[in-house]
Each structure stands twice: as C-alpha cells, then as structure tokens.
Design a protein that fits this description.
Elements: H1 3-15, E1 19-20, E2 34-40, E3 48-54, E4 61-64, H2 71-90, E5 96-101, E6 106-111, E7 117-119, H3 122-135, H4 144-159, E8 167-169, H5 170-175, E9 178-179, H6 184-187, H7 190-198, H8 203-207, H9 219-232, H10 235-261, H11 269-288, H12 300-324, H13 326-335, E10 338-347, E11 351-352, E12 359-360, E13 363-368, E14 379-382, E15 385-399, E16 402-410, E17 430-434
Parallel strand pairs: 2-7, 7-8
Antiparallel strand pairs: 1-9, 2-3, 3-4, 5-6, 10-13, 10-17, 11-12, 13-16, 14-15, 15-16
Helix pairs in contact: 2-4, 3-4, 9-10, 12-13
Length: 462
C-alpha cells in the first residue's frame, strides 16, 4: 500500500466515511453494460449454480441449475447464458467506422462500439475464465456453448490488460476512486464497500450481514438453505430462493454504475476504450474467418509476446492515470518522479545554432517549493503539454527550501523558428514536471515459433 493510500484509509476511518482518491473517472462506463452475477456450487470444481444477468436494472434474467451435479443441466445453463451473451455481443458488431492509419495514407475499420461486462469481484472473473475453458472446446449440443466459451475466454484475457474496460469488477472500480476505512479484504465485500461510500462507517456493519456477491456463497446459506432444496429437487423453490439471494447484489451493481457515472471521465479514458474496440473488432474478425479456439496454454513465443504487451500496457496506464489526475500524480511527487514549480523566467524565442541548422530551443526557469530529485540531463514532461520535452540544463538552490531548475524545451511548438501561441509556458504559470512520459515504445520483435529451440516449441532436436 502506498503512503497516500494509507493516509486516505486513515482519513476515511477518522471521518467515518469513504474519501475520494481520484478527481476523475479512470475507466469507461458503458451506456448499456451487461451485468453478470455468477454463483457456483461449493465443493464442486466450477459447477454453475445460478447467474443473474441483464442490461437493464429493472429486467434481470435469472438462470438456475437446480441440480449442479447434473451434466445436462449445466450444459443447458451454458446454452442459455450463451444465447444471452452472444446476442449482446453481436449487437455491437453491426456498425463499423473508418480509422485513418499510417498518417492518413491508409484506412482500417473497427466497430463503432464494443460490449462491456460487469461482475461484482475478481472471483467472478476467475469463474468466467474457468467456465470459458470448460465450454470453448465443446462440439456437441447447443452451438452457443463453444461460442460462449470463446467469448468468456476473450473477456477474461482482456481483464488482465491494465486499463482495459471490456470486463470490469465493481469492487476494483470503486477502490480505484474511493478509499474506505476498512481493510482491503473487507473491501472485497461489495455491499460493505458501497455502504462506506454511500452512507458512512455505520452502514457496512449491516451490509456485511447481507449475501456475498459470489461466486462462492455463504457456508451457512449452503448448509441450511441450499443443500435441502437441491436434495429435494424443488426447482421452483430453489429459483425463488436464489432470486432473493441475488437481487440485493444486482441492485448494488447498478448503484455502483450510477456512482461511477457521476464522475467526469479522464482525458485519456477514450483512447483506452478505442483500444478495447480494436481488440473486440479483431476478435470478431477472427471468429468470422473461422479461427480456432484459444489454446489451453500459450506457447513460449506467444507467452513472451503477451507478457511484453501486459508490461507495456501497465506502464502506459500508470502514466495516463497520473497525467489525467493530480491526486494520482501526487504519488509520483512523493517518490521524486515529479515536482510542481512556477515559471519565473522564460525565453520563448531562443534559437540554437550549434548544429547544422538553427532550431527553436526555448528555455524557462522554474522555481520549486518542494524537493527536486532529478539530475541535469534528465528529460521531463508536463501533463499540460505531453508532446513537449523539457531537458534539465541546471539545478540551483534558491534558498528557503526552494530550488531553481533551468529547462530547455523541444517539440510541441510547431515546425517554424517561432513558437506557436501558448506552446511555451509563460512567466507565472504553474507546472507539474515529471520523468513519466507517454512517448511511443516500439513493439518488441519475437521469433517465429519454428525458429525457436525444440525446448520452446520449435522443431525437434536432430
């Protein structure tokens, strides 16, 4: 836990109410998401018990497996869930839009929208991942079953990508924006966490007595209520009990969505959702072209490429959140990766003639009232002008705990020897400067699997 996160939890505990840890919303919230609350039977490996699913708070569909050990009923559950999910997904694959690539010299197409699934907690993602693996290779029975498995695997894989919003958990989305006065383990209970945000510290005590948000159920509920119903085979009564169990969680999910919609979206949320739409469009094309199901496990090259993709996404997501939100940037100021300063001198028309041709290289002097932990030669960026690079020329103590930093600017000022209006920070402007950067990172090149040693999936040793 970071210093500011610990401080926020302490403040929430002292105030008796959750405190915000973000000034903007850091994820895309769909105008018509699919909320899915799965339940699994205790003691059985990924045996579905029930699911409440739907796109509207007033119209949930309840799918129930009255006998979770019955294989035919489990496949009927998968077929019904597959019909619902595939219909929702296909509704977003109807309209495509052109996207300019290669600096406008070419055009590609992606769908104008993409689906978004919401589950209560990370356990719901794990359930969908395992259920997807269980169903995507099935060839018998309802044709929606293997397609359901492939889509669940796609969404579960997307959930591993930092910043992706194709499959979202409610408790993690709330933790991204509010800190409660309880532990992280207690935040895993959606009702308790939401009560801290909505009503304060007294409400979670009552919320904790409510049903957990799955996929595991409460042991006392399993033993005292569910087990007798399953043994008796009373399907109608089982469905009624499970509906009563899931309805409070269903309402909490939609209250969570409303709470998040009340926050303004961060400036870079849209670009991440564009990347999600690209991923969705690519997978739709893969299915349309008759592509095979996802493998049970990645080969060595595919695993290395995926790891590289996840690491790049994590680094990019951390930078984008910091650039969008001063509360997130404050963490980097504490660690020395950023500092705030005021421009005290500016030379916007400075020309550097030391090279083969003159170039515009303005200089500014900024004064910081906080520790500056960068060295001369370091490259800095300001979230206000992310395309502009500021190179540290010199650092001088200014007395009274202040520090003067001389910076030389390049980029983001136009292509002429005269800077465009407002492209150079003016005297009196306050800046946040950081070593974080959104600079494009080239994609790593990996060998073809056939060119790797036999230990990594290549041809056998002779």
């Amino acid at each position: 836990m970071s210093t500011l996160a610990a401080l926020a939890r302490a403040e929430a505990a002292a105030a008796g109410r959750a405190v915000p840890v973000a000034t903007v919303r850091h994820l895309h919230v769909h105008e018509r998401p699919l909320v899915l609350i799965p339940l699994a039977m205790a003691g059985e490996a990924n045996a579905p018990l029930a699911a409440m699913v739907g796109c509207h708070p007033a119209d949930p569909a309840l799918l129930v497996v009255a006998q979770p050990r019955n294989r035919d009923q489990r496949f009927a559950f998968a077929a019904a869930l597959g019909d619902l999910l595939c219909a929702y997904v296909e509704a977003h694959a109807a309209v495509a839009e052109p996207v300019a690539v290669d600096r406008g010299r070419d055009v590609r197409y992606r769908f104008a929208g993409a689906p978004q699934l919401w589950v209560p907690n990370p356990g719901g993602i794990e359930f969908l991942r395992l259920f997807g693996r269980y169903t995507r290779f099935r060839s018998e029975g309802h044709p929606a079953v293997p397609l359901l498995g492939r889509w669940l695997t796609f969404f579960a894989s997307a959930a591993e990508v930092p910043g992706s919003a194709l499959l979202v958990t409610a408790v993690q989305a709330l933790s991204l924006h509010w800190a409660t006065g309880q532990s992280s383990a207690e935040d895993a209970h959606l009702g308790s966490q939401l009560a801290w945000i909505e009503s304060g510290a007294a409400a979670p005590r009552a919320a904790e007595c409510g049903p957990p948000a799955g996929p595991a159920t409460d042991p006392s509920f399993d033993n005292d209520v569910l087990a007798p119903l399953i043994e008796s085979g009373a399907a109608g009564e089982t469905a009624a009990v499970l509906r009563e169990h899931l309805t409070p969680i269903w309402e909490q999910m939609w209250r969570t969505l409303d709470r998040l919609r009340g926050l303004p979206a961060g400036a870079r949320v849209g670009s991440r959702w564009d990347a999600d739409r690209d991923a969705f469009s690519a997978f739709v094309r893969h299915l349309a072209d008759g592509g095979p199901p996802q493998p049970r496990r990645d080969g060595a090259v595919a695993a290395a490429a995926r790891l590289h993709h996840l690491e790049a996404a994590a680094a990019r997501y951390a930078v984008q959140r910091a650039f969008d939100d001063p509360l997130v940037m404050a963490e980097h100021r504490l660690t020395g990766a950023a500092f705030a300063a005021e421009v005290v001198l500016a030379q916007p028309d400075r020309i550097d003639e030391s090279g083969r041709r003159p170039v515009l290289r303005p200089r500014i002097l900024v004064r910081a009232d906080e520790p500056v932990r960068v060295e001369p030669g370091a490259a800095l960026t300001s979230p206000a002008r992310p395309a502009q690079k500021a190179t540290v020329v010199g650092i001088t103590p200014a007395g009274a705990g202040r520090t003067d930093v001389l910076l030389e600017l390049s980029g983001g000022m136009g292509r002429r020897l005269v800077a465009e209006a407002a492209s150079v920070p003016a005297v009196g402007e306050r800046l946040v400067l950081t070593t974080l950067s959104e600079t494009f990172r080239p994609i790593a090149v990996f060998p073809d699997p056939a060119e790797t040693p036999w230990t990594h999936g290549g041809p056998p040793a002779t």
